[in-house]
């Protein structure tokens, strides 16, 4: 088990999410972090336990160097082994079970799809952030139903960080920030880009460089 101190969930910005095996996985993660990603999720739906454990362990160390929270998709046991937080969807264990395994300091994030009711319920169960999507049709997850942007605005009232996911590009992202997204969760727009660091930086700049806007 990796005993690394996890940074807290603070601020706004880019939530980079990996998408399965690739030869240059660690370099890709490092590039996203160098480009300014503020959260990193290891998402690998394969069943290769040994490879997943080794990858998650190394990525958790890279994240620690950048002082960026490390999150594992779905797999609470792997999150525990690698000192990470976890992201839970409707097929995964309840928040309370993840919390019991990972402790009070761990980040436990949840998928709310397009449902404010689900968000309210999961907040009551102890979730640390609320993710909504798909905001646009997603090539990474083609069957994810598209949800209205105003769910982001409604979710602000729940008082937890709001994450937008699904089909986000640099051309359609600003409207999501304006609607209330604290984090933009990105897979293909950064990890399929020819220059991951530059692609991530372009998104990060959307949060950092709006002249005259007080946040
Ligand atoms: C930040 C974030 N939001 C949503 C998801 C999707 O989670 P889920 O619905 O559990 O689907 P899979 O990722 O398991 O296919 C996510 N992973 N991260
Ligand atoms: C993993 C995931 N979950 C979604 C949801 O709507 O819950 S959309 C999605 C894929 C996001 O990838 P991209 O940025 O390439 O569209």
Automatic annotation (TrEMBL):
Gene Ontology, cellular component aspect: cytoplasm
GO aspect biological process, one term: thiamine diphosphate biosynthetic process
Chain's role: Condenses 4-methyl-5-(beta-hydroxyethyl)thiazole monophosphate (THZ-P) and 2-methyl-4-amino-5-hydroxymethyl pyrimidine pyrophosphate (HMP-PP) to form thiamine monophosphate (TMP).
Gene Ontology MF term list: magnesium ion binding; thiamine-phosphate diphosphorylase activity
The keyword Amino-acid biosynthesis is assigned to this record: no
Recorded name of the encoding gene: thiE
CDD domains in the cross-refs: TMP_TenI
Protein residues bound to 2-[(2R,5Z)-2-carboxy-4-methylthiazol-5(2H)-ylidene]ethyl phosphate: 138-140, 167, 187-188
Pfam family, one: TMP-TENI
Similarity field: Belongs to the thiamine-phosphate synthase family.
Domain of life of the source: Bacteria
List of residues binding Mg(2+): 74, 92
Cofactor: Mg(2+)
Class of this enzyme: transferase
HAMAP family attached to this UniProt entry: TMP_synthase
Protein name per its UniProtKB record: Thiamine-phosphate synthase
Sequence positions that bind 4-amino-2-methyl-5-(diphosphooxymethyl)pyrimidine: 41-45, 73, 111, 141
Alphabetized NCBIfam families for the sequence: thiE
Species of the source: Luteibacter yeojuensis
InterPro entries: Aldolase_TIM, ThiamineP_synth_sf, ThiamineP_synth_TenI, TMP_synthase
The UniProt record lists the keyword Cell membrane: no
Domain Thiamine phosphate synthase/TenI: 14-190
Metabolic or biological pathway, per its Swiss-Prot or TrEMBL entry: Cofactor biosynthesis; thiamine diphosphate biosynthesis; thiamine phosphate from 4-amino-2-methyl-5-diphosphomethylpyrimidine and 4-methyl-5-(2-phosphoethyl)-thiazole: step 1/1
Entry note: cofactor: Binds 1 Mg(2+) ion per subunit.
Taxonomy of the source species: Bacteria, Pseudomonadati, Pseudomonadota, Gammaproteobacteria, Lysobacterales
Assigned EC number: 2.5.1.3
Catalytic activity field: 4-methyl-5-(2-phosphooxyethyl)-thiazole + 4-amino-2-methyl-5-(diphosphooxymethyl)pyrimidine + H(+) = thiamine phosphate + diphosphate; 2-(2-carboxy-4-methylthiazol-5-yl)ethyl phosphate + 4-amino-2-methyl-5-(diphosphooxymethyl)pyrimidine + 2 H(+) = thiamine phosphate + CO2 + diphosphate; 2-[(2R,5Z)-2-carboxy-4-methylthiazol-5(2H)-ylidene]ethyl phosphate + 4-amino-2-methyl-5-(diphosphooxymethyl)pyrimidine + 2 H(+) = thiamine phosphate + CO2 + diphosphate
